[in-house]
Amino acid sequence: MVLRLDTRSGDFEAAFREFLGGKREASADVGETVSAILEDVRSRGDEAVIEYTRRFDRLELTPDTLRVSAAEIDEAVSKIDRDLYDALAVAADRIGAFHGRQLPEGFCYTDNAGVRLGQRWTPVSAAGLYVPGGTASYPSSVLMNAIPARVAGVGRVVMVVPSPDGVINPLVLLAARMAGVDEVYRIGGAQAVGALAYGTQTIAPVDKIVGPGNAWVAAAKRQVFGTVGIDMIAGPSEILIVADRLNNPDWIAIDLLSQAEHDEAAQSILITDDAAFAAEVEKALEARLGLLTRGDMARRSWERHGAIILVEDLLRDAPSLVDRVAPEHLELAVAEPDALLERVHHAGAIFLGRYTPEAIGDYIAGPNHVLPTSRTARFSSGLGVLDFMKRTTIVGCSADALKCIAAPAARLAHAEGLQAHGLSIETRLDDSAR
Amino acid sequence: MVLRLDTRSGDFEAAFREFLGGKREASADVGETVSAILEDVRSRGDEAVIEYTRRFDRLELTPDTLRVSAAEIDEAVSKIDRDLYDALAVAADRIGAFHGRQLPEGFCYTDNAGVRLGQRWTPVSAAGLYVPGGTASYPSSVLMNAIPARVAGVGRVVMVVPSPDGVINPLVLLAARMAGVDEVYRIGGAQAVGALAYGTQTIAPVDKIVGPGNAWVAAAKRQVFGTVGIDMIAGPSEILIVADRLNNPDWIAIDLLSQAEHDEAAQSILITDDAAFAAEVEKALEARLGLLTRGDMARRSWERHGAIILVEDLLRDAPSLVDRVAPEHLELAVAEPDALLERVHHAGAIFLGRYTPEAIGDYIAGPNHVLPTSRTARFSSGLGVLDFMKRTTIVGCSADALKCIAAPAARLAHAEGLQAHGLSIETRLDDSAR
């Protein structure tokens, strides 16, 4: 039985708080193991990476075969079904077009005091993309992580993907090629993160590491943070659907299940103003569950973490609940979603109307599918071009401009007890440049 | 003796690498202590905060006196010297004006397929600012942390500042008032970070915590990250000055010392193309050192971590060295700094020409003085308005638009083994909305 909440019931606030506070994932404590692997990769480089790959991926590599060659990529790509090739190409184009709009502009101006002021955006020099192996080796994630880096102007984009027993998903290699990845290495786990962060004899270090991974990868990213930048550490996926009774209940049911099928820690929530519609959705969901290949997983997710929340008035009641959940994905399945859109503040990505299933955003709409989970949309954003760039501020004073603003600056410096700070300003007023 | 390097010497590369890799700060391992404090604040709220404040700050508080009242702020502010008041007001104005230019714009468009696409920026709901107590209680930092939050449109800005033995710097309270801080609490340490992250009976939780602090505060910020957003964990300050022989050596010397006086882990580096000029700077620096109130500290920083790097040609050789250091502060003390500016990629803030001492940026120029340290300018930025905002992407399909892009999306979903993802798209093509 899925959790049901009703805003009109007296204990709603307490029950909703408990629901919000619920933990969906036990975090494995692998910090020490990871720390030892990272240290080993840092000190021994390729040799350590090759040893861990032998142990964890049952694969024998040499420094020469760490990298997936262009010929191997050609070979893998040549066998890909034409329709799939084209589908990935459409996705890459659309993702590139959307992310192109995210390119920021700097500014530069001279103010009344004659001070030249500005802000400049520049890309990081090199980015590393972690791609999981096995069943979670998603070509769509390669596009979503690599294209923003390329659009940002990152000089060198490197991908690591574990190849257990020598197997790599050919679609992942195709996606890497389409997204313009420069180097692909067949390594994974904490050892691959270490290689990207510290560099080895064969792999030059990068400045930023992005991409999803298991507990070892997540722990490794946390530990190398500071040496390199990292993206967020993603938690299990979520969807919140705000739907009125005029939706096809089967559509809403399958949307809820499209999150639930990811992972049993995933979470699907429906907010509606109609109890009969909610019951119809549940019925449709049951019917669908039996037919899904990942139905058992989806059922566990739905029954453990799902919820149906009944409200009196969608427009009045839903936005504040949405903001408290701050969902990764938000569907506004109503005829006029803009009124709700304006009232909602915290969500990773929003899908408008009855014909925008969340999954369209996972693949092809254009925006990124790497989004903040676990209520972090309150303060963080999906992956984008800005994650591969940084700002530098610029100040330029002429002798006259400095005179204009020197006195208050020096006064504050001395008030803070920082004498040399004050003197560095004052001495330029009294003396000559040479 | 300060380290001297010369790009023309055979061992330069090895020596420069060693210099770059040098650690300047031992990080205290306070993780477990902090973890216990956070857990205690999380479960006991005000009571725990009050107990830790009694123990660490020798101050007896009640839930009613946790907050600094408006009357207390009035009283403290009323005694502040008029010149200092005015200086802080000028700083607040200029910082506000610069940060106003950082406000981002979203976008919204409909593409060829008829898909509505957009990106919206919204502020976080509540931000918490940590301000250290004692000698590092800087009013300028209050402005630099609180003003970007205000400009971003953050609804509630909260400040915590420890008050050991009951003492708070009145200038810090004035800065909080000028910057529009809504609530000030006289608490500090890990307990204050815990109160901001989890909330207590008296203090509502925030969504993002920013501001500098000691090892306990830094560890607490790391640990609450995920529950709330945090800014970077700042390391010791740095300056790199690129200067030709046409500078007044005393000006360059005092600029180097203005970083060195912060902290013995601070780092000051001079890159010049003239050995005689370098010697003059060193001589001027020695002369200044003896006169500074913080001269002992500055000397330790300079002798342990400072460096003079001689190059043959500033324009040709300096930029790549600068990028490898990726300094927090970069002064380009030459007559025509723009040529260097164009060639440099990684620096937190850049100061142009002979009349722009770094200290002018610490107080009054306008850009933020919270900047990336320890080579992290390769991938991160100074504090700004964007740190208090987040992006939400928006997708809207009509029935026709969905038809246009459905096929490749569903194909990719099925190729990734995510059947419900595919079905959520396909079912909308076959069936009717209700």
From TrEMBL, chains A, B:
<feature type="binding site">
    <location>
        <position position="362"/>
    </location>
    <ligand>
        <name>Zn(2+)</name>
    </ligand>
</feature>
<protein>
    <recommendedName>
        <fullName>Histidinol dehydrogenase</fullName>
        <ecNumber>1.1.1.23</ecNumber>
    </recommendedName>
</protein>
<feature type="binding site">
    <location>
        <position position="362"/>
    </location>
    <ligand>
        <name>substrate</name>
    </ligand>
</feature>
<feature type="binding site">
    <location>
        <position position="329"/>
    </location>
    <ligand>
        <name>substrate</name>
    </ligand>
</feature>
<dbReference type="GO" id="GO:0005829">
    <property type="term" value="C:cytosol"/>
</dbReference>
<dbReference type="GO" id="GO:0051287">
    <property type="term" value="F:NAD binding"/>
</dbReference>
<feature type="binding site">
    <location>
        <position position="130"/>
    </location>
    <ligand>
        <name>NAD(+)</name>
    </ligand>
</feature>
<comment type="pathway">
    <text>Amino-acid biosynthesis; L-histidine biosynthesis; L-histidine from 5-phospho-alpha-D-ribose 1-diphosphate: step 9/9.</text>
</comment>
<feature type="active site" description="Proton acceptor">
    <location>
        <position position="328"/>
    </location>
</feature>
<keyword id="KW-0560">Oxidoreductase</keyword>
<keyword id="KW-0368">Histidine biosynthesis</keyword>
<dbReference type="GO" id="GO:0004399">
    <property type="term" value="F:histidinol dehydrogenase activity"/>
</dbReference>
<feature type="binding site">
    <location>
        <position position="416"/>
    </location>
    <ligand>
        <name>substrate</name>
    </ligand>
</feature>
<dbReference type="InterPro" id="IPR012131">
    <property type="entry name" value="Hstdl_DH"/>
</dbReference>
<feature type="binding site">
    <location>
        <position position="421"/>
    </location>
    <ligand>
        <name>Zn(2+)</name>
    </ligand>
</feature>
<feature type="binding site">
    <location>
        <position position="262"/>
    </location>
    <ligand>
        <name>Zn(2+)</name>
    </ligand>
</feature>
<keyword id="KW-0520">NAD</keyword>
<dbReference type="InterPro" id="IPR022695">
    <property type="entry name" value="Histidinol_DH_monofunct"/>
</dbReference>
<dbReference type="Pfam" id="PF00815">
    <property type="entry name" value="Histidinol_dh"/>
</dbReference>
<keyword id="KW-0028">Amino-acid biosynthesis</keyword>
<comment type="function">
    <text>Catalyzes the sequential NAD-dependent oxidations of L-histidinol to L-histidinaldehyde and then to L-histidine.</text>
</comment>
<feature type="binding site">
    <location>
        <position position="259"/>
    </location>
    <ligand>
        <name>Zn(2+)</name>
    </ligand>
</feature>
<feature type="binding site">
    <location>
        <position position="259"/>
    </location>
    <ligand>
        <name>substrate</name>
    </ligand>
</feature>
<keyword id="KW-0479">Metal-binding</keyword>
<feature type="binding site">
    <location>
        <position position="191"/>
    </location>
    <ligand>
        <name>NAD(+)</name>
    </ligand>
</feature>
<feature type="binding site">
    <location>
        <position position="214"/>
    </location>
    <ligand>
        <name>NAD(+)</name>
    </ligand>
</feature>
<feature type="binding site">
    <location>
        <position position="262"/>
    </location>
    <ligand>
        <name>substrate</name>
    </ligand>
</feature>
<comment type="similarity">
    <text>Belongs to the histidinol dehydrogenase family.</text>
</comment>
<feature type="active site" description="Proton acceptor">
    <location>
        <position position="329"/>
    </location>
</feature>
<dbReference type="InterPro" id="IPR016161">
    <property type="entry name" value="Ald_DH/histidinol_DH"/>
</dbReference>
<feature type="binding site">
    <location>
        <position position="421"/>
    </location>
    <ligand>
        <name>substrate</name>
    </ligand>
</feature>
<feature type="binding site">
    <location>
        <position position="237"/>
    </location>
    <ligand>
        <name>substrate</name>
    </ligand>
</feature>
<dbReference type="GO" id="GO:0000105">
    <property type="term" value="P:L-histidine biosynthetic process"/>
</dbReference>
<keyword id="KW-0862">Zinc</keyword>
<dbReference type="GO" id="GO:0008270">
    <property type="term" value="F:zinc ion binding"/>
</dbReference>
